[in-house]
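A further point concerns the way the authors explain their paired sequence and structure data. An entry of this sort, consisting of the sequence and the corresponding backbone structure tokens, reads as follows:
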Amino acid sequence: MLTRRPFRAALLTVCALSLAAATALWWFNRTDDAPYGVSADGSRVTLAYDGERPDEGVATFLTVLVQRLAAGDVKGVDALADGYPDGAGATRESSDFLRPLAASAAAGKVTAKVAGVDDARSLPQQLRTPGGGTSQADLTLADGRHLRVQLAREHGVWWGYALAPAG
């Protein structure tokens, strides 16, 4: 009877420490929720993929981007493309570039070709701040116009950092 008590205490201690370690590991490797989402009552868009469908984060980002573009929400597109959730990065030049694309995005199916994710950071940087990486998406709008979006993932959330005509 006396030998079982220390064993139980040791077992409970190991279990508690394992739980604490698992919680700490989850906490430091968790990703933040994206501050954007697909709008159920927004513009209805059809986004198809040329090749393999990207991960859910990229797919959500691209759907929201095309949805905002189709609605003519230039400030909303700038918010995504410049990584400023409040649209603070919106500029007149980007508005002049994006406005003519709104009708093209709303006209029908948009096709996206997404490159694989690349994370060129050093291993210590990847361990300190997981959930990073870059990619690129080429969008073909319904009327044949092309748009290239450079993508960056920060703490598991995808943002655009450049929009340009592609061709």
